[in-house]
Structure formats: structure tokens, C-alpha cells
Amino acid sequence: MRLLHTSDWHLGRSLHRVSMLDAQAAFLDHLVAAVREHEVDAVLVSGDVYDRAVPPLAAVELFDDALHRLAAAGVPTVMISGNHDSARRLGVGAGLIERAGIHLRTDPAGCAAPVLLADAHGPVACYGLPYLEPALVRERLGAERTAHEAVLAAAMRSVREDLAGREAGTRSVVLAHAFVAGGQESDSERDITVGGVAAVPAGVFDGVDYVALGHLHGAQTVTDRIRYSGSPLAYSFSEAAHRKTMWLVDLDARGEVTAERIDCPVPRPLARLHGTLGELLDDPRHARHEASFVEATLTDAVRPADPMPRLAARFPHVLSLVFAPERAPEDTADSYARRLRGRSDQQIAEDFVAHVRGGSGPDGDESAVLHGAFDDVRVDAGVREVAG
């Protein structure tokens, strides 16, 4: 059986206020084309279909169009809710939609009720485990503790019990949305820590042939049978080096897994540039990033004037500006009190300006502004003392 594993669409999400809807639409075009080109038997979507619980109308319309196109392709789709989704909203009409071959699994009570698929080698039981919020599902699942590992372990016990009652040779697939130990995070995933622990051990999923994971945005292999597809698009600059893909998974007659990555379209690459403003504007090595989304980290000791418009002249799609001035190491042996001893308020303020600028103190005009500010404070304090 050939499966196409994807997740973390985050429909409706923006990148630094730049709408990604057109790029998301292009990805869904690519997904439907890949289903046909690679003769896929089923599509697996492992959560975070939307970016937030109440998605914008344009995102809902995009999702609706995707469902119609997948249904028209005649290929079953199994989809679970993630921690960004509203399980209730995503699951509305699930019973009716299922008649079209779109299987929405958003209710934790249905973890052990598989979507039954079949090929020439027999049945494949596909179990959808939606994102399980420990505090909300612990009692329903009979978990021992309010923790991610405990609720997932309870859900997987029910999966294994159901699987044990099925005909011999039934192969098994599990969709889950979780942070499995060994996975590599990025900045764009929402924290799911409970009680100080977010990660669950891979051993929780023992006993099934393939585990299609969602949540982490980088495509990665935890084990040969446990994989993250990652998000199809980059949603933070921490993902600049990611290769965005889907997994094309083949499950043979014995449940052995082979998998390859199918690249997703890249609407515009991301680049993280680091250096002084002059270096970023003049270095010919950065020419290849002039059409990229850019995060610029400036190392100038003194904050340059109007850096964003100057950067935008070369990099029209610069989205993020970070200041990280390079400074000479400080003498940490000297105490703070000793450094201030015998210095006036004006001198202390000028020293602070020099500190944040990496050693470059205020110029004459700035010193005059500081001097005037201290004079105003002294006058104000004197007036209040006389009035008191």
C-alpha cells in the first residue's frame, strides 16, 4: 500500500505579517498532483490543518477546496486534529464527509476505531490519534497521570487491543500529533509542555507498522517506522535550512516500510544574513538572496540610521531586523558599585550609552540632550521639594 504522509499545513498562517495563503494553495495543488502522479492509495494528514482554532474565512475556503479535490481523486484521506486546531470545529460533519472518503479523526474516544483500507495483500487498519491534551482526556482514556506520555500510552493500549482482535496479517498505521523524543524543534511550533515535560519516548508506539507524526516542522526520521513529515512551508526563519517535503511510504505485504521524500514547492527561499549594514549592502556573496525572504542581523557597534529601508533597497523582501552589536569583552572582575564610584549622573548615562553601543559613547548633540534631561529632573525635584 502506498501512503502519502503530510502534516502541519497551518492554513491561514502568515510569515512576519506576509500572507502565505497563495503559497498554501500552491502546495495543495502540488499535493493533489502528487496523489495522481505517484498512484497513492491513501493520504495521511497528521494534524495542524489550520493555524488557529478559529481560522480566517479564506483558510476555511482553501481547506474546503482541498477536501473536494481529494474526494474527486477517489483516494481515501485520513486526517487528525493538531494542537493548533479546534477539534470540535474541524470535526463538524465528519460522519457525512466520511461518505466521500475523507476520514476526520478529532474525537479522542475514537482512537481505537480505525479507518479500514485494503490492497491486494489484505487489510490495513489506520488509527487516527488526534492531539491529546492531557488534562482534558486523561479520565476518558484511563491514563495513569496527566502527562503526554501517559495519555498517548493509554491511547496506544486501546489501539493494540483493537488490532489484536483483527484477522492475522492486518497491517497497522497510526497518525499522531506529538513531540517524540529525538525530534528536532524549530521556533514556529507552539509549546505543548505539560508538567515540564513535552517529549514522549518513541517506544510508546511499539507494535504498529508505521507512525505518521505531526507537530515538528522539520521532516525527520525518528526510527524507520516513525517519521515526521514536517510542514510543507517554512513558518519561521529557524526553518531556513529545512528541505520541505512529504513522505511517500510503501507498506509491503509483511508491513515492512520503505519511504522517500517528495519535495514541496518553495514560493520564496528564506535567508538569515549576519554582518554590519555595510557588509550586507555591499558583499556580492549576498546577491543570491536578493529575492529571498530575509532576516538581517546587524553587528554594527553603533545602530545605523534607517537600516530597514536601506536593506530593503537591496533585499525587497526583508522581513526581520535583529541588532547584535559585536563588543569587546568586558572586565567582569570589577564590581558594579566600584565602576560607579565618584562618577556623576551624566557620566554614568554616557557610560551606559557606550556599553549598549559596544564602546561608542554619545556624540556632542546626544551629550547635550542627556545634560538637559538631568537638568530638567533636578529642577522638577526642586519644585516638588519646595511645594512639599
Task: Give me the secondary-structure topology.
Elements: E1 2-6, E2 14-15, E3 18-19, H1 21-37, E4 42-46, H2 57-72, E5 77-80, H3 87-90, H4 94-98, E6 102-105, E7 115-119, E8 122-129, H5 134-141, H6 148-164, E9 171-177, E10 179-180, E11 199-200, E12 210-214, E13 220-223, E14 226-228, E15 245-251, E16 257-263, E17 270-275, H7 277-282, E18 293-298, H8 307-314, E19 318-323, H9 336-340, H10 345-356, H11 364-387
Parallel strand pairs: 1-4, 4-5, 5-6, 8-9, 9-12, 10-11, 12-14, 17-18, 18-19
Antiparallel strand pairs: 1-15, 2-3, 7-8, 13-14, 15-16
Description:
- The protein is of the alpha/beta class and 388 residues long.
- It folds into three domains: 2-263, Metallo-dependent phosphatases (Purple Acid Phosphatase, chain A, domain 2, 4-Layer Sandwich); 270-323; 336-387.
- 31% of the residues lie in helices and 23% in strands.
- It has helices at 21-37, 57-72, 87-90, 94-98, 134-141, 148-164, 277-282, 307-314, 336-340, 345-356, 364-387, and strands at 2-6, 14-15, 18-19, 42-46, 77-80, 102-105, 115-119, 122-129, 171-177, 179-180, 199-200, 210-214, 220-223, 226-228, 245-251, 257-263, 270-275, 293-298, 318-323.
- The protein has a six-stranded mixed β-sheet.
- β2 (14-15) and β3 form a beta hairpin.
